[in-house]
Every structure is written in C-alpha cells, then in structure tokens.
Amino acid sequence: MNANNINDQVYDLYDEYCHGRIDRRQFFERAAALAATGVAMANALMPNYADAQEVLFTDERIKATWVNYASPGGNSGEMRGYLVQPVGEGPFPAVLVMHENRGLNPYVQDVARRAAVAGFLALAPDGLSTIGGYPGNDDEGRAMQRSLDHAKLQQDMVNSARYVRTHELSNGKLGATGFCWGGGTTNFLATEMGDELAAGAPFYGRAADTEKVGNIEAALLVHYAEDDPRVNAMREEFEAALTEHSVSYEMHTYPGTRHGFHNYSTPRYNPEAAGLAWERTMAFFHKHLD
What we know:
This protein is of the alpha/beta class. It folds into two domains: about 5-45, no CATH class; about 60-290, Rossmann fold, CATH 3.40.50. It is built from ten helices and eight strands. The chain has helices spanning about 10-20, 25-35, 40-45, 105-115, 140-145, 150-165, 180-195, 230, 235-245, 270-290, and strands at about 60-70, 75-85, 90-100, 120-125, 170-180, 200-205, 220-225, 250-260. Helix 1 runs antiparallel to helix 2. It is globular. The termini are far apart. About 50% of the residues are buried.
C-alpha cells in the first residue's frame, strides 16, 4: 500500500502514536474503526528499516565506530554514540545527528553515515544508552525514552555535542541537526551552547523557548512540513523572536509533506522534499563549518 492509499485520519492517528499519545494497540484499533482497510493502512505506516539504508556501514568512503564518553549531569554520567568519519586524516567539521523520540534507530544511524559521506565527522548519540540502548524496535524505544529524565537527556545531548566538537578529528566547528524530538533538541542546543554551536538545522522540531532565543549565536536552517499543525503552531512566535534578536536564520516549508517526511522508512517519506532539505542542510553546514 502506498502513501496515496492511506486515509488522512489514519495518518493523524499515526502522528498520535508516534508521539506517544496513544499506544500501538489503540492505533490499530482506531485505524480499523475508520475503514475496512484501516489495519492494512496502519501496517503500511510501520517503519521498514531493512530496506531504507542509503549508505551501508561497509561503505569505503567512511569509517563507523561506537564510542563511549563522559556525560556529567546526564542520566547516568556516561553516553554511547555512533561516530562516523570520512576516510582521511582530517580534521573535519563536526555534526551532531539527533534521533527522534525512540532512540538511535537504523534510520538515524544511516543519516549519520550520509553526513560523513558529505565530509563531516558525525556523531549520532543514543539517548537510551544509559538504560541499555535502542532496543531494536520503536515501540519499546519510545517507552524507554519517555521513562528518562528529560532535562538530563537534554544534558546528555549537550555533552555529546561537546564531545564531537572537541574530538581529535574535529576542526572545532560544530553543527547540529535532528528530527522531531531531535529537531526540538537542536533548537534547545542553540539556546544553551552559545558560540560553541555554529549552525543548527532542525527538522520539524519543537521551537526554542522564546525567552532564550536571545542566547542563540548559531545560524539556523529550520525545516517544516506543510501538514504538521502541532509543530507549525509554534512557528510564528519563534520566527518573531529570531527576528527580534537578529539571529541569522532561514525557514523552509515543503509542500505536500507531513511530519516525518525525511524518514524514508515509512510512507510519510517524501523523496523530493527529503532530498532538497538534505541538500540544503549539507550546503548550509559546509558554509558555516568548513
């Protein structure tokens, strides 16, 4: 079943499910109540990571490793992340790649590899590493992430950013990107890290606290889906605060897209919009980090 065959109400239910407002059983039950093919529609929206990889971990252009590093003030005091470097001696501009609300799944690992292919030292931290790591499926991952202390999880991301920025292979310039929860955390890092963060490119994430926007020194490239009421409701106030504080920013809305359009493991994926957003992000990072 392709994206065009899925009822808009089922997409809305999937958004509720993805953000933890209903569980898997409720998602399928409510989808079934909407249409005779509701269960098939719901199944079609489940992520298929096996077929979604764009850059394999064996790609000769990169070197991928798992790293452990200190994370004072975080959920356990230590973090684990997926570090991917381009082939060569470096130094390379550094990029933090932050996952959604379910831990470091295969899609986000693949995004880190794509960033490395583009010439960046990429770190994708697993926020769930403090309680065993991404469990292999999004349902358990979502529940695990919800169980963590949110402020400490944010601190784990701050520490991850500092780790990759000061890595021996880094040129000392840092960019951050992320998706959904990771997009909101990109905005959070911009308010917390001052000149330690040179550029941020959040994808459909929660806006920064407007009272802290004046702390932002990074340039921002903000990506929005057209059909994403919850996130888009924050845009006007966020943009006004960025303008008021003379933050360097640009915002793009991608026509015909839904929340999650960059994630190529579900039918919400929009290849044209995802490709354009990624191309813009890589160019933006090269402009500010090289």
